[in-house]
Amino acid sequence: MASFTYTVWSNLSLPALINQFRFVFDQLNFSLTNNQSGKIHLWSDREIEIDPSALSLISDIELPLGVQWWRGDDDIYVGFSKASDVGGFICHISLVGLSREEQAEIAKLLILHITPEKQCFPDDFYVFRLSAQ
Question: For the chain, first and last CA: distance in Å?
Fold first, then answer.
């Protein structure tokens, strides 16, 4: 099964970035809360499960950080790391098993809600990339 990974740069703060991703993935009925565990699943040097009411703790976790969004048996994994050369954050969004229509819709929503306006990033700097396996 083919998988896509979108790489997106953003100059938002980590809490604002998480909120924007929540907005994007809510459009396709993905949730930060895993239905089975009732927790938010994070990955740093190990798996961390936190209560949804403790979402503000995400900004205290050391980067790089991975966050999973859930919809039934489907999940989307987003890795966050600091972009040392230009500041901001690099986000790797891994999509496996989603339809082409959903992959395209996610790309559109990422461009509209996560990537900054052109005047906010350096020339010749990639703010959105696609890789496929």
Answer: 8
**Nearest-angstrom CA–CA distance, 67 and 48:** 10
Q: What is the DSSP letter of 127?
A: S
By three-state DSSP, how is residue 115 classified?
A: coil
C-alpha–C-alpha distance, residues 40 and 42, integer Å: 7
Task: Render pLDDT for 60-115 as a digit per residue (tens, 0 to 9).
Answer: 777 899 999 999 889 999 999 998 788 889 999 999 889 989 999 999 999 999 98
Q: Which two tokens stand for residue 15?
A: 């809490």
Decide: pTM greater than 0.90.
no
Query: In degrees rounded to 5, what are phi and psi of residue 89?
Result: -130, 145
**Helix spans in the chain (H):** 14-26, 100-113
CA dist 7 → 3, 36, 79 (Å): 13, 29, 9
